[in-house]
Amino acid sequence: MPVVYLKRHRMQIDLRQLNLDLPDSPNVHSDPKKNYRGQNALGEIAYLPWGDKLITLHSLAKWESFRFEIDASVFPCLGDREGCKQLMRDLSQRANFVPEATWLAMGQQSGGLETPAGTIQGLRLDGKLGAIQNIGVVPAFRGRGIGQSLLRLALRGFRDSGCNEVQLEVTVHNLGAIRLYESMGFRYANTVFKVGNIPVTG
Length: 202
Hints:
CATH superfamily: Gcn5-related N-acetyltransferase (GNAT)
Radius of gyration: 17 Å
Shape: globular
Largest sheet: 8 strands, mixed
Helix content: 25-40%
Structural class: alpha+beta
CATH topology: Aminopeptidase
Number of strands: 8
Oligomer: single chain
CATH architecture: 3-Layer(aba) Sandwich
Strand content: 25-35%
Order of helices and strands: EEEHHHEEEHEHE
Distance between the termini: 13 Å
CATH class: Alpha Beta
């Protein structure tokens, strides 16, 4: 596969002037084994704060979210199930890991089976600057506001842990994600390039 440089936007948000109240307060639970009953066929979404026992569920959500996306060509571990689990272990063991900004969304499949629906993780780059590492929503659960809820919960966690600003990176082709970040108050900071391997088709 040819090596290409993928263009990514670095975006940043100032938490000090931001209203982080959740208009439709998400269902926040501490018990990952809770039965999440909803009012529709897909069931409700529950949001779980970070816990070491959730590593496998976070890694599964990450793998399901990114394995077919362009990000997996930039960060190959995102396209590998075991790679995602190792990445979650590594992130959670770092001294600058921010558990308050790390959340898991759990939902129900049509048959009632509880399954990871989304994930977000946070790191602290310095005393007042946080960084979102990955925010992913499993394809079957997209379009239900999960990304926005995860983002709000993470930003509140960063604020509560003492951060004033938060940054993230997004591939320029991911227009849906960029629109979400802009709607939340993120603004363009600068452009970075990451090496990726893009398969040749046709």
